[in-house]
Design a protein that fits this description.
Structural class: alpha+beta
Distance between the termini: 5 Å
Shape: elongated
Number of helices: 5
Largest sheet: 4 strands, antiparallel
Helix content: 25-40%
Order of helices and strands: EHHHEHEEHEE
Length: 160
């Protein structure tokens, strides 16, 4: 599937504001509302648009602790990586989980209401997962940049 200029305008617009109405979107890209809706559905069906969601501010809903947790596995547990991934995915406190290459095996982004709650998460959940050798937590003190938009150049060709 090749993304044309209109597809890229739709994607750029929806990334900036996922609540843009179909009518407004059709005016922005210069095609009819039914054609715009058809394109959006095609982009969803192709998996280019994963989902629509509301992004909440963690602090305003009571999550004052955000930690980046580096995990290293023991060499003997490398055969059970799939099981460990599943366990990470089941933890509500883990809002992002990445398997990485380098000095560590995983990076988790974890939220907690306060430091005590974070400690309980560490002691009762994370340390109970077999195969984890090292856990290193870093606490976020300021969000300097958090970009969730992939700006698509209207002149560049994208084949998906």
């Amino acid at each position: 599937m090749v993304l044309d200029k209109i597809d890229k305008q739709i994607l750029n617009t929806l990334q900036e504001n996922g609540r843009t109405t179909n009518s407004r979107l059709s005016k922005i890209v210069g095609i009819s509302a039914p054609s715009t809706l058809e394109r959006v559905k095609r982009l969803e069906n192709a998996g280019i648009i994963s989902y629509f969601t509301a992004v909440l501010d963690p602090e305003s809903i009571g999550f004052s602790i955000i930690a980046m947790v580096n995990i290293s596995l023991s060499l003997s547990s490398l055969s059970s990586v799939a099981d460990i991934k599943k366990k990470f995915s089941l933890l509500d406190e883990v809002i992002e989980c990445y398997q990485i290459a380098g000095a560590n095996d995983f990076i988790l982004k974890v939220v907690a209401k306060d430091i005590k709650t974070y400690g309980e998460f560490m002691n009762t959940k994370l340390t109970q997962i077999n195969g984890i050798q090292v856990i290193k937590s870093s606490f976020i003190i300021d969000n300097v940049k958090e970009k969730r938009i992939f700006t698509l150049s209207l002149d560049e060709e994208y084949i998906v």
